[in-house]
Amino acid sequence: MRLEPLIIFENDDFVAVNKPSGLLTIPDRHDNELEALSALLKKQYGQIFTVHRLDRDTSGIVIFAKNETAHKALSQAFESRDVEKYYLGLVNGEFVEPSGSINAPIMEHPVQRGKMVTNAKGRPSLTDYEVLESFGLYSLVRLRIHTGRTHQIRVHMKHLGHPIAVDPLYGNNQPVLLSGIKKKFRLGKFTEEEKPLLGRLALHAWKIRFQDEKGQVFELEAPLPKDMQAVLQQLRKHKKPQGN
User: Which of 55, 81, 200, 206 is 20 to 30 A off residue 224, Cα-Cα?
Assistant: First the structure.
């Protein structure tokens, strides 16, 4: 995988990368170190420091520090909630309330390893949401997280009854198909099976805003991946008129 097309911004202190879905931010216990984004960066920069992470299946913006001083300052900013983090997600269903906040503590699932749940005994977790577009089957939602819990957005969207589309852990694994969007869909003459428009978690880390230790403010955006853009294009094209 080539790193250059993924770089959004870099200076002497940090590099911001648009991570593709399916790629680990850093190696986990089970995976070869070469299969992570941090390994690609180490190959290019020699030394790299992890500031924060995204789930493997979430795409979007990730920041890595280039030196220890920047790493310390950026890590502190992330831990003290001084960083504004915005996501775009395609979720199942339509919302009653077009915007709101989910203030529900999150803890590890008592039985299932690697899964989280909302529970009064969990750690404080706060997510704001705003519906940008509604399509009946799906809604496009802008989300801001104020805390950085594992799977926070995915758990909070499930908590609301609108899990992120194509989320096998908190929703269902059903891919987004054109046949589910387009009323009179027909397979091509020589096509035996429909190819999904989207077959991965429909969550993208879209925008980040923070201040470095020198007081400079950065606002960086990762454009929406082509697969999510393709879904939105079809949803807009085949959206039912209001009142029908």
Answer: 81
